[in-house]
Q: What sequence folds into this?
């Protein structure tokens, strides 16, 4: 048995920032104004809105108007945010056992930034399938 300690919210924030900094320049520039937030779980209102009963089912969420649907003459109504949910990501990491925590955080972050850029889940999965 080990005495390993689960990464904290601050650890997740650092790993997410490192993943963001490692993105290719054009991708990072396009996503530049997005705010990255780390929480243990999605709040009850978000879970209810998405009709999710188990908070462990949601590892990340993009909240905002994607850049393809914004009014080009003005700013977005509110800042775009990417939420990463620590406990569900940790749970997936433990269950899978085949991926590092930094890699999993980067995966969820990139997926949610894809939504910020206007990509659908199907678009993102197609891109991921091309990489495999």
A:
């Amino acid at each position: 048995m080990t005495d390993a300690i689960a990464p904290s919210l601050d650890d997740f924030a650092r790993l997410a920032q490192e993943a963001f900094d490692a993105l290719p320049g054009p991708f990072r520039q396009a996503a530049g104004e997005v705010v990255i937030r780390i929480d243990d779980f999605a709040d009850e209102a978000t879970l209810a809105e998405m009709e999710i009963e188990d908070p462990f089912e949601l590892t990340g969420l993009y909240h905002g108007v994607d850049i393809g649907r914004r009014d080009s003459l003005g700013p977005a109504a509110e800042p775009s945010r990417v939420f990463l949910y620590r406990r569900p990501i940790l749970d997936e990491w433990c269950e899978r056992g085949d991926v590092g925590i930094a890699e999993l955080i980067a995966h969820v972050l990139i997926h949610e930034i894809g939504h910020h850029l206007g990509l659908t889940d199907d678009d993102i999965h197609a891109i991921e399938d091309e990489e495999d």
